[in-house]
## 1
Amino acid sequence: MRLTVQWQDHSREPHAGQFYMLRAWAADATPILSRPISVDDFDNQTGALTFLYQVKGEGTHKLAALKKDDTLTVTGPCGNGFDTAALAGQYKRIAVVGGGIGTAPLLLLCKELCRAGVRPDLFVGFRDTTYGMDRFVPWCRDIYAATVSGKEGLHGLVTDLPGGSLVIFGADCLPILLYDPVRRVAAACHAGWRGTALGIAQRAVEKMGFYGSRPEDIRAAIGPGIAKCCFETHEDVPNAMTKALGVCATPYIEPIEGGKFKVDLKGLNAMRLKRAGLLEEHIDISPDCTACHPEKYWSHRATQGRRGSQAAVIQLL
Ligand SMILES: Cc1cc2nc3c(=O)[nH]c(=O)nc-3n(C[C@H](O)[C@H](O)[C@H](O)COP(=O)(O)OP(=O)(O)OC[C@H]3O[C@@H](n4cnc5c(N)ncnc54)[C@H](O)[C@@H]3O)c2cc1C
Ligand SMILES: [Zn+2]
């Protein structure tokens, strides 16, 4: 939910990282405390002060139910906020990192850093869909937005830092782990059918290239996932594959009865990796089908969604 109020007090203007205490109920009528919400944006020309919040419990429900002429008590600004002038004086590159509703306080931060002379890079993560990214565009050098589900934005992890673990979760979707023993770079990505059509594995190899990896050095492991035996689809899946790969996709698609298809995601991803320059002998494919082995693996299909997940982990030591 977005809430904009008019902030008239020029002697106490809000800065990035500060928050306000909001109360949309009479203190004596509802005995709950004011709720802290961060400053999302502040326009010092017009005094428009914007909050972005998620409805959680009673307090935020009451905020969301505000109607015209209702009273809202806004106390603040609270907290110290960021000293953006000092940060911009000290650093040439600044990375601003956040996720979910936690991106709300980052907008004013990016604006203030920009005004202080450093255009930051923004790294944000969301569950399913990114939101409000367009507002950041004028204030950021680069925006890296990722989602857990991969429906939008980036979806995959690359590192050359020893000790950090990259983890991918899935149940039918393929975990793909990549390792370059020469430059010591690791990557992990999660390839469902959408990710396969979008070429996530190939993209991961490209990203490893930014760390100096050469495709011919990279080892790939395609983990257990739903195999052709069980991955029955309507025409949307094969259509996405042939749209992305043309006739090269056809060996991996088998028409079956009732206008349906069986699709070999493992084969498609191995083909993508070979196209990206990996050697065939460096691509290891688990033969296990998650839907065939309920005793061993979680399968989204086999459990109709009532499931846990497998985790695939890679770590540089
Ligand atoms: C400094 C600071 C800045 C913040 N900035 C922001 C911001 O910019 N945007 C933002 O969205 N939030 C922000 N928050 C968090 C925000 O303050 C809380 O989400 C809010 O206070 C919750 O109040 P509430 O009365 O709605 O929920 P409460 O009733 O206090 O509930 C708190 C917890 O209980 C859970 N809960 C409540 N009711 C139920 C129910 N019926 N069933 C299951 N679970 C329930 C909620 O999910 C939540 O986890 C900030 C917090 C702090 C401390
Ligand atoms: Zn199977």
Note: The chain is about 20% helix and 25% strand.
## 2
Amino acid sequence: MIEIIFGDNLTELKKLADQSVDLIYIDPPFNTGKVQKRTAMKTTRDENGSRIGFQGHHYVNEKIGSKSYQDSFGDFYAFLQPRIEEAYRILKNNGSFYFHIDYREVHYCKVLIDEIFGRDSFLNEIIWAYDYGARTTKKWPPKHDNILFYAKDPNHYTFNTDDMDRIPYMAPGLVGKEKSERGKLPTDTWWHTIVPTNSKEKTGYPTQKPLGILRRIIRASSNPGDTVLDFFAGSGTTGAACAELGRNCILMDNNPEAIQVMKERLKTAI
Ligand SMILES: C[S@@+](CC[C@H](N)C(=O)[O-])C[C@H]1O[C@@H](n2cnc3c(N)ncnc32)[C@H](O)[C@@H]1O
């Protein structure tokens, strides 16, 4: 079953039960945060603070300026933190969390997520490498996104190596026919095209991610019949992959356009 929910994800996440989903993937929108820039906040752990967060720790929220890069990150951090705390609460104890983000923000986000999940829960930084668009001549042209992978319990989580899509050997002649036909397991570096402009997959939603990336995550980190949550769902790529792979899916977005695109894209599944 695929469920599409319209609304602010913080409000909607609070309605979901503790430990009720098996896998969470999110691709939050950095940079759309111009509105949030007005209220840049810094959250610091302080046992005298009035805000209570994960595991009952106290925090203080401090308003800071909004001009510098650090400050605009402070905004994003304050936006993300309560949502990731909700994700942690909703995730089953053997569940996994994938966080898709831009290379400029990933380091700050990792520190934030480590605080909520614990550093031991961090398993991989996946590099999704693509080759598209203009190339700057001023520095190495950035052509990748980062996906942080966490397991709520790093000693007990779903990871289906037997059900992964396999990739070709670079030198198939060196490994023999059987191995080369079977291919090898993917690593933490994934080469995959962006959604091609003229493809059937393209919905027209600006930040749409490729189905191939979501299929790989869902096959590896969930089982048929499991429930997957994407609370920054956009065009519903996570839902489309879940529908193909026999997983249930909860999709949230606060943009009516995204809801419309998802309803059209997933009309045979909802
Ligand atoms: C980068 S896009 C996700 C794209 C998606 N992965 C795909 O493949 O289409 C981020 C989405 O988060 C949504 N969003 C931003 N803030 C939100 C909020 N507070 N609650 C729910 N959705 C939100 C935006 O409307 C946008 O569709």
Note: The helical segments are 9-13, 69-90, 106-117, 177-182, 211-221, 237-245, 256-265.
## 3
Amino acid sequence: MKDKPRGEGGVTAIRYDFSNNRNMCAVSCGQILLDPMVAAQVTSTYVDWLNDTEVNAYLEVRHHRQTIDGAMAYVAAKIAEPHTCLFAAYENGRFIGTAKLDSFRPYHGTAMVAFMFGEKSVWGRGLGSQMVMAACHFGFQRIGLRKINAGCYGRNIASHKLLEKCGFSLEGCQTDQVMTKDGPDDVLIFGLLASAYPHASFPAAFADAN
Ligand SMILES: CC(C)(COP(=O)(O)OP(=O)(O)OC[C@H]1O[C@@H](n2cnc3c(N)ncnc32)[C@H](O)[C@@H]1OP(=O)(O)O)[C@@H](O)C(=O)NCCC(=O)NCCS
């Protein structure tokens, strides 16, 4: 069968390179630096983020009280997973949140991106979009993903707008899929094809550390 170029539903030269510690490296976009996360970053501040009801309002971590030991075990397990890329997000050297690529499907060339700023003071400044663009840049350029997906609760307007700003398209809606303190909510499914990246609203400069 003839290979189709990217963007026409086919795959030519995809390389899923998780070798060399999953090919992890630092990647930056605008003011955000994503650095591979290490267990030492699990401090009481990090755990407080996870337990903050504003931060976790639309995150699954809200269902259980988070502890240092539990968070440490979670982060260590994610770091050990061969196909999960967990990043710490920094602005001017300050640790402000995390981004993750996981649910990697090698036969399809897809993964899911997830993101969170625990430092609420940075919300609304456009940094979330930079964080997700940096993670997508890593997924497409370093791993060779064909498509990246994301899911967010219908009421999570910031997340919804952020994903659209990053070029994601709304692909589906799971009606009343989850329960929140305000009642049932939809889960919106988004997707971004490598062929649609980078697009006009991406900052011109991305930088890998190596
Ligand atoms: C989701 C999150 C990362 C957004 O980060 P952020 O830095 O505030 O996002 P940005 O500033 O890049 O905003 C992206 C877009 O959303 C809009 N937006 C942000 N917060 C909004 C809000 N509360 N209501 C409406 N629009 C909002 C912004 O205006 C921007 O659009 P614009 O450039 O057209 O103005 C941050 O709110 C967060 O960490 N929340 C808690 C964890 C979470 O919910 N993670 C996502 C799970 S799916």
Note: Residues 1-15 have pLDDT under 50 and may be disordered.
## 4
Amino acid sequence: MSGKEEILSEVTTKALHKERETVGSPFVENPRMTCREVNVYYGDKKAINNVNIDIARNEVIAMIGPSGCGKSTFLRCLNRMNDTIEGCRVTGDLRLDGMDIHDKNVDVVPLRARVGMVFQKPNPFPKSIFDNVAYGPKIHGLAQNKAELDEIVERSLKKAGLWDEVKDRLTQPGTGLSGGQQQRLCIARAIAVSPEVILMDEPCSALDPIATARIEELIAELRQHYSIVIVTHSMQQAARVSQRTAYFHLGDLIEVGMTDRVFTNPRHQLTEDYITGRFG
Ligand SMILES: Nc1ncnc2c1ncn2[C@@H]1O[C@H](COP(=O)(O)OP(=O)(O)OP(=O)(O)O)[C@@H](O)[C@H]1O
Ligand SMILES: [Mg+2]
């Protein structure tokens, strides 16, 4: 490389790097999770570029951005779900209460109980309603006896706002519930193993407006006990449920801030273009 090219490439790298610097307030005091210099590759294609962000305690943080910008990919970093995807490689430092989640001593099974996940499409196990919720506590040894297990199942279904609808049919299959009920069952299943963080990837996109409203109310209640990271395509939903919003664009974390501020006074042009409907 000639001297001139070298200088040019350095300038370009700096320019790119500058563009990637997240504006707003990605960091918080006393975070539940910290993510530093996180990169994700699918084969040799980079899907997440140098993301730095904290997840606070008792917050709902919304991840928004155009399709393909890396929201789901980043969400999966938080409980090492990307490990399950062939060819996917994650670098950087991710911590839960200070614990490096990539440490060789970390077992992903308990990690995924502490950082639970709710998917776009409700995916109850082909088991009874009771067993869907009891499964996690059983494998993690959270109940000493049947009475304790019953107690955990009831408490989790109550927290998920589903108990009254299912208490007389606990032995029936979870798959026999309506879509909105199935999604609340999946939330109960995540809650049953006492998580600290719940990841939700477009949890309402398969639901009607009434079921969506029910889940949104639930998210607001759950914040008292957990941190919730929700990916959503609905800016109205992000505005209704979250305290902070993170805007992703082509694998870059562009802006993070208080939701009201991001939606009324975005600091980055790309955020503004997206929320005003000029992009995506
Ligand atoms: N399993 C995979 N193998 C290869 N590339 C992938 C894989 N999953 C995602 N990608 C690529 O990584 C990038 C980010 O994808 P991701 O699914 O995280 O985006 P997203 O923001 O969640 O999009 P959407 O809003 O459509 O769900 C895209 O370019 C996508 O094509
Ligand atoms: Mg996605």
Note: The pocket of magnesium ion (ligand 2) is lined by residues 71-72, 201 (CB under 6 Å).
